[in-house]
Amino acid sequence: MTLSDSFSQLDDAALVRLAVRDERAFEVLVNRHAAGVHRLAASTVGSGAADDVVQEVFIAVHRGLKGFRGDAQFGTWLHRITLNACYKALQARQNIPFEGAPEPCAPHNPVNSSEQADIRDRLAAALQTLPPEQREAVSLREISGLDYAEIAAVTGAELGTVKSRINRGRAALREWLTQAGLKP
């Protein structure tokens, strides 16, 4: 068993403590959480900008590790950093003129990939119609898979408020997708 393998057996809290001085521990954190960060970023800013957001997130995490006190779970802190990076990217995009569609992903099956990309684009467009608080709560629940209490910790909202935002957001998404010709 290598040292990297032994790092992968540690929980996030232990890895965070080690990652302050050991890049291998940080690498394990990145590998463990990158896919989830990417899913959340892609749902918020679109797949074309998600890679840049993920990079910004882990740069911010690396810089902030020394100051991370552990008052919240690492995952909660990471989701907050991810959402902040997404909002920063969306703000920057508003100041830049639209230059065409996002760069497509390399498809394995062109027909299926095209249909999936269309559905993802419609869902991303639908998410953008939600008020920011609802979009954030729905994304954290449906894309990141956080439970209501974790979403409350990330957003700083009361548990009942989180449930209400998710319920209202789901209803609005269902209506938007139905009007767009998709069966939710």
Automatic annotation (TrEMBL):
Entries under Gene3D superfamilies matching the protein: 1.10.1740.10, Winged helix-like DNA-binding domain superfamily/Winged helix DNA-binding domain
Keyword list, A-Z: DNA-binding, Sigma factor, Transcription, Transcription regulation
Transmembrane segments: none
Domain called RNA polymerase sigma-70 region: residue spans: 29-94
CDD domains referenced in this protein's UniProt entry, alphabetically: Sigma70_r4
InterPro entries in the record: RNA_pol_sigma-70-like, RNA_pol_sigma-70_dom, RNA_pol_sigma70_r2, RNA_pol_sigma70_r4_t2, RNA_pol_sigma_r2, RNA_pol_sigma_r3/r4-like, WH-like_DNA-bd_sf
Ranges of residues in domain RNA polymerase sigma factor 70 region 4 type: 121-173
Family assignment from sequence similarity: Belongs to the sigma-70 factor family. ECF subfamily.
Stated name of the protein: RNA polymerase sigma factor
Organism this protein belongs to: Deinococcus antarcticus
